[in-house]
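[job 0412] stage=complex_fold ligand=beta-D-glucopyranose status=START
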Amino acid sequence: MKNLWSISTNEFAGGKESLMRRGNVYQIANGYMGYRGTLDEFGPEESVGSTLAGIFDRVGSAWREPVNAPNAGFTRVSLDGAELSALGRKVRHHEQTLHFANAVFARETVFASRGKTLTLKSSRFLSAATPNLGVVQFSIRCDKAAAVTIRTGIDCNIWDLNGPHLPQLTAEKHGSVLLVQGVTNESAKRVVVAEAVGLDFGTETHETQGHRNLRAIRLHAEAGKTYTFHKYYAVFTDHDAVGTPLPAAAIEAVRQARALGYQACLGKHNAEWARKWERCDVRIEGDDEAQHALRYSILQLLMAAPVQGSANSIPARALSGQVYKGAIFWDTEMYMLPFFLHTYPEKAVELMRYRIKTLDGARRKAATEGPGYRGAFYAWESQETGDDACTYFNVGDPFTGRDLRTHFRDKQVHISGDVAIAMWEYFKLTGDDSLLLEGGAEVILECARFYYSYAYFKRDKGRYEILDVIGPDEYHERVNNNAFTSTVAKETFAIANATVDHLRKNHPKALQALLRKIDIQGELPRFREAENLLYVPAPDPQTGVIEQFDGYFQLGDATVEELKAKMVHPNEYLGAGQGLAVATKIIKQADVVAMLNLLRTRFSTEIKKANWEYYEPRTEHGSSLSASAYAMVAIEFGKLDFAYKYFLKTAKIDLEAKYKVYVGNIFMGGSHPAANGGTWMTAVLGFGGVQADENRVAINPRLCRKWKSLQFQLVYQGDGFKIKITKTSVTINPARTNTRKHTLLVAGSPAKCSPGKPVTVKYRQAK
Ligand code: BGC
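[job 0412] stage=complex_fold status=DONE, emitting structure tokens
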């Protein structure tokens, strides 16, 4: 049976593609930073990356991207003078593992050189207890006596896509601690890395080797004896509010870690991870493949989740590197947030605080992006300030090498509504309005203000319309009345109105202060009007199909296969000016179906089915966001086998590496946290049928064939529940610490849940 708590491999073929892929799949992260799944002896050629969350830099006119720290995970070994690398010819055996339980990466490699073998073992983690800290345990054993040199320290050869971001690094040694300091180009942010080792063998000398700040440990290794040492490193930047200078803080951090020792550091880290899994694990009985991939997905989300108090968010490629500019997209609100909202609201709050933090950037974008736009137009690709990192020419044409004009930045306006909806969801599911008071309400009102400035009032039709946009389907640009976009805009007005009502009732002074602060009182009646009069395409009365945008039905018919057969270049972009999909009904990803999933309770099963059946054959699923939306909607009308297929496709996206690596000529490889979120969403909200709103939690299970049971945890309005769903019953175990009695609806029947008292309800699964 497959180990359900790890992934491992013993193949080790070099090659760029496979190194890149493994770097993504075996990455570790702790919200503060990531470390790609590369090996100790690797350098920039093998794309070693220690990507820092929330700190960005730009060199010249290249794309701004997150900063990679100098690599303090570096260690290289030589055996009788011969350097060892898993990419070299001396490898006899290699195995590497990522442990899900505690996000530890481990490897073991056996090298043979001149009649001797050396076994190298290492394991590393980024501390979940102390976010600035990385720890490595490293050991070697030779079968015969040998001269071994271990070079370990900080490699300042940093892998960057568009660097160098820390152009002038200084390497020093303070007592036994190695230190490297650098400053970013653009905003002179300091990045400091310190490293210390706990070592009791060999003789140590300090070496600077090219761009490496190293210690060389020389020893005469005895036959059969294992030599183990530990590395502790700390990364600090100007974003860390430490009372002392950063170098002193970093040095102190590694000294403390060393004094604590490896086992104690690991113990604290493990305890944090145990707590995370205790609340976030999902168990599937009867389907190891799904269990494994789902757990891997949850691990990814937990590793990427922002550090408490950081007000950071999760980029579209998480912390797997600099791809996609390290930018935050709608992916976070629409695909990742549900997991955090339902299981780990303390992290959801950080994701939302990030949008509050970047509100000024969204205001700047509105003020500069178009004629008379007002309010908050959130960045399509958002970095630390909220100014848009998305360029007007965001895709390269592989034929000409030229950049293609795309309108993701200026027309994909649904992003503001996605943010407003997420902010309100947070309030509904947690019952906590403090976030609204601390900037959330301001975000919502500014998003409504933006849509009001974007909308047109059609006098002849007596309605508002949202024109000239891109919906989630990026292959059709500058369309009118896109169902998804208009829906989120209308929702934004409704949410803005509900926010005002809530504050008026519960926090009248705060409301007055806010209305004054952003001078919006006079606009409130317009939001009421727009909530009523904004046009959203409705289902066709005969077919039930909602037209994705005005004129969509007139576009050419084609199948995805026919379209792809016409491609001249494998990476050719199908959208923009003359992409192959533009004149056809082929869409990149779930659009109407994403809307049906977003507003699950608003549409009947028939409408969902009609639209699913119409759009699915026309969807390329060219984005990792697409399949889970289709899976979710398929579950609702009972197409469970299909939903299961798309669930697995989403869950295994990184494990199987079946995704596009190039969009046009732009490299997009990296991990896919939105798919990880979509996986959880499909398992728990889809097959588990959980549907929570401000009034209650409903559970309408639709377990797929293979699943005997599904177990997960929910946090709802501050209280916790363990849920177990089988094909015939739902058991709810409310936490003893719950503050009140809740009534959950199981397949329509009320289940009264008092703190600490499990309840089992029998049900019959809907067809
Ligand atoms: C998708 C977007 C998504 C972005 C980042 C694009 O390919 O079309 O919807 O936000 O990737 O994942």
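The two ends are 32 Å apart (CA to CA).
[job 0412] exit 0
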